[in-house]
């Protein structure tokens, strides 16, 4: 079986701003929610059977206590923030496993979900659907891959090495050195991508660097590595069978109607039509 793990936060942002550009700002209140549901629906139509979606129910996480500059919900438009909980409710009604994160982040949930699935010998491949470079650390060979919907790229371990110049396991070290502007930490001054690749190739993990390499910046680099390291021990589900899609719940239609999303010309209409025969 193939397990599909979806970054719901990224998808919601993608549809929110994509619809705004396409509609010149005139977007339905829950248009982004409808967009994500259609994306998941299309994946099912294309053959996906085991699916989990992670969201940042609360943007802030434990990392904000470690670094004052870490990303927060400040600046995120209220119209976008207001769609997180409705998305989670709609996905659950659709019959999809949802992990709405509070203390941890959606990225931690995706990493943890991949870790759990990787221990099941029935799982042939795990696809993590997000362009977020943090998740590249979870890639393992050809079995756990990252799917970048923006570029239609499927990134295995060789793809991660080609893109970043380091193995997937070294992504937290790499990000600690070069920084991650989207997450709000700057990296170590004077070290760029090439420098980070060279140092990691020569010395290995940051913990193994000779003291003089980073000098007084060593503690800061280790802090940033902690920020970049995704947690893989979140208790999300016990068995991959829990991720199998069996169709929508009875309240799916009322939930969609309540949100004003009843796209009759899309694949979601299949769920509303009582006599429709499932094409997947």
Overview of the structural elements:
This protein has 280 residues and is an alpha/beta fold. It has two domains: 2-163 and 231-272, 5'-nuclease (Rossmann fold, 3-Layer(aba) Sandwich), CATH 3.40.50; 164-228, 5' to 3' exonuclease, C-terminal subdomain (DNA polymerase, domain 1), CATH 1.10.150.20. Helix content is 41%, strand content 11%. It has 13 helices and six strands. It has helices at residues 8-22, 31-45, 63-66, 78-81, 84-94, 106-118, 157-164, 171-178, 193-203, 211-214, 218-228, 252-259, 269-272; strands spanning 2-7, 50-56, 97-101, 125-129, 144-148, 153-155. Strands 3-2-1-4-5-6 form a six-stranded mixed beta sheet, with helices on both faces. α1 packs across α2, α5 runs antiparallel to α12 (252-259) and α8 packs across α11. The longest helix is centred in the N-terminal third of the chain and has 15 residues, at 8-22. The protein starts with a strand and ends in an 8-residue tail after the last helix.
Instruction: Output the CATH class name of the largest domain.
Output: Alpha Beta
- End-to-end distance: 15 Å
> What is the name of the CATH superfamily of the largest domain?
5'-nuclease
- The Rg value, from CA coordinates, equals 20 Å
Percent of residues in beta strands?
A: 5-15%
Secondary structure: helix percent: 40-55%
**How large is the count of helical segments?**
13
Strand order across the largest sheet: 3-2-1-4-5-6
**CATH topology assignment of the largest domain:** Rossmann fold
| Secondary-structure element pattern, one letter each | EHHEHHHEHEEEHHHHHHH
Q: How many extended strands?
A: 6
Supply the number of structural domains. 2
Helix/strand-derived category reads: alpha/beta
**Are there runs of 5+ residues with pLDDT below 50, and where?**
263-267, 269-280
């Amino acid at each position: 079986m193939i397990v599909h793990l979806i970054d719901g936060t990224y998808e919601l942002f993608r549809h929110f701003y994509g619809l705004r550009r396409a509609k010149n700002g005139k977007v339905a209140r829950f248009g982004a929610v409808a967009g994500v549901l259609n994306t998941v629906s299309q994946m099912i139509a294309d053959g996906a059977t085991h699916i989990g979606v992670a969201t940042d129910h609360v943007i802030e996480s434990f990392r904000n206590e470690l670094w004052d500059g870490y990303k927060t919900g400040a600046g995120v438009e209220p119209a976008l923030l207001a769609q997180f909980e409705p998305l989670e409710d709609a996905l659950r009604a659709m019959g999809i496993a949802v992990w709405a994160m509070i203390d941890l982040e959606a990225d931690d949930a995706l990493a943890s979900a991949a870790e759990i699935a990787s221990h099941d010998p029935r799982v042939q491949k795990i696809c993590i659907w997000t362009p977020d470079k943090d998740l590249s650390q979870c890639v393992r060979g050809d079995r756990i891959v990252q799917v970048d919907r923006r570029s239609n790229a499927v990134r295995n371990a060789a793809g991660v090495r080609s893109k970043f110049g380091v193995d997937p396991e070294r992504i937290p070290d790499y990000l600690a050195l070069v920084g991650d502007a989207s997450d709000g930490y700057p990296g170590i001054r004077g070290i760029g991508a090439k420098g980070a690749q060279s140092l990691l190739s020569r010395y290995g993990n940051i913990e193994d660097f000779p003291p003089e390499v980073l000098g007084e910046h060593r503690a800061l680099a280790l802090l940033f590595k902690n920020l970049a390291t995704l947690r893989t021990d979140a208790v999300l589900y016990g068995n991959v069978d829990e991720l199998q899609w069996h169709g929508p719940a009875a309240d799916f239609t009322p939930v969609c109607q309540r949100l004003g999303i009843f796209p009759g010309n899309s694949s979601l209409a299949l769920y509303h039509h009582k006599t429709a025969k499932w094409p997947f």
